Amino acid sequence: MRILALAVLAVLVALLVIRFLAATQTAQDTGKLTPQQLREDFEILRGALEEAHPGIYRYTPKAAMDQTFERAARSLDRPMDAAELYRVVAPAVAALKCGHTEVYPPEAVREEIRRQLLPLKVKVLDRKVYVLLDLANADHRLAGAEIRAVNGVPAADVVTALLAAAPGDGDVMTSRQIAIGGFHFAEYLAALLNLRSPYEVTLAERGTGRLETVRLAGAELSRLRKSAEAQSPPPSQRPGFELLDQGRIAVMRIREFSGLEGFFRDAFGEMQAKQTAALILDVRGNGGGEDDLGKLLISYLIDKPFKYYSDLVLNKTSFRFAKYAKGSAPLPIWMLSRGEDGRYHLVRHPNWGLQQPSQPTFRGKVMILIDGGSFSTTAEFLSQAHFHHRATFIGEESGGGYYGNTSGFTPELTLPHSKIRAVVPLVGYYVAVDAGQPANHGVIPDHPVHYTIDEVLAGKDKEMVLALSLARQPG
Question: Is a pLDDT exceeding 50 seen at residue 2?
């Protein structure tokens, strides 16, 4: 009996081996990855996030993240190509709700997608998708139309799927709507939903609401960008400063926090010389930059010592996933100190500890224009300005979390089988502001501003109009 049982067991093992080898061969023959390869890549990524990401549970509790990861892993039960794996991984990683944590399809897949994109640049407003630039027709007749469906998929379902996979801090929707707009919408259609050229697009005509369905051939991204720039040149990224009303009002535009020390010094010096009474600060679309420049800007607006960060923390200084992140810059160990909590703190960061005001301090009225693109360093500055009651905020909710983010040093992993790339930030930033604001949101404007697609196409700037009106009010 024992010999018979062993023989039966041997047959079963042989059948399992044959089945595994057959599945492996089938996957290889079709250019797909085996379930084992898929799971290996997924576990490398999950392990990297759990090991290194200090804010992995900042917005989503561990139990919920574990369920999300495990559900994704269970779905890897059949051969898939890298693009299919990306469609599993992207929404799972987005569930962290960290705007600095992102995954990308393999470069070969991205290049293939970018050769046949939907030839429309879009604007997402209140979860509806509108044609911002029609790059398919010489008369641009589709501009302003609302997209109702693409290749038979309702636009509402498209938006829901894209928002679920878009990186963003907390529950901020303004930043995610920006993230899925522009040409990203066309890329996501292919990468996340596998909607490909030719595109059957159902639209509601601007003004009349009349429905029509058009057939559009895909176009190469670089050509689309060139055509878009010819129709609508992008705004300059250079900082801007001007004085209005005989110097009584200053308008400062900052598109990125980079190389601004001299700019700030000269601008605030001129405001002091002109006895400027009101400052309009425009940081819409400013995705961040150098940490210390956010601190420098707030130091010109408050007149007493202050703390900018309450903590800067890393889980570790070396990581098991390092072999998949070749080329990443080494951590500056000299800036770190290990705390009693067992983690490492960035105690030699220039924003650590008590900070001093900068001279000349501006004490007049401040209006700050914000939107979902006000992110990272910009969001930290906005939290400080809000906490110190130093400004009136105009626009829409800012893109970054009120109490900080996870960013800093950001190695990029390349998963070995699929070549999917993933950015894993290593530093938890905690802004020195008191509790009391919603932890999963950014700065909420005092004066919310909403746009219709007609106002967008007309180039209206409702935030600036309102800010100038407030600046010109007495008192």
Answer: no
Looking at the structure, do residues 299 and 434 belong to the same domain, yes or no?
A: yes
Amino acid at the residue 109? V
The string of pLDDT tens digits covering residues 142-192 is: 999 999 999 999 999 999 999 999 999 999 999 999 999 999 999 999 999
Give CA–CA dist 39/85, Å, rounded.
Answer: 10
Residue 117: strand pairing partners: 219
pTM value is: 0.91
Residue 367 has φ and ψ, to the nearest 5°, of: -115, 125
- Count CB atoms within 10 A of the CB of residue 357: 15
| Mean pLDDT in residue range 312-322 | 95
Nearest to 352 by CA among 434, 427, 286: 427
CA pseudo-torsion sign 30, 32, 37, 39: negative
Does one domain contain both 285 and 420? yes
Other C-beta atoms lying within 10 Å of the C-beta of residue 201: 23
Closest of 268, 276, 212, 286 to residue 244, by C-alpha:
276
Task: Give the pair of three-digit tokens for residue 89.
Answer: 């991984």
Residue 1 lies in a domain: no
Tens digit of pLDDT for each residue in 365-406? 999 999 999 999 999 999 999 999 999 999 999 999 999 999
Cis peptide before 198 (omega within 30 of 0): yes
> Which among 99, 125, 145 is the end of a domain?
99
Query: How many other CB atoms are found less than 10 A from the CB of residue 171?
Result: 15
Q: Answer yes or no: are the C-beta atoms of 291 and 298 closer than 8 Å.
A: no
Task: Identify residue 161 by its one-letter amino acid code.
Answer: A
- What's the CATH number where 120 sits? 2.30.42.10
Q: Look up residue 247 and give its two tokens.
A: 């110097």
The residue out of 49, 69, 99 marking a domain boundary is 99
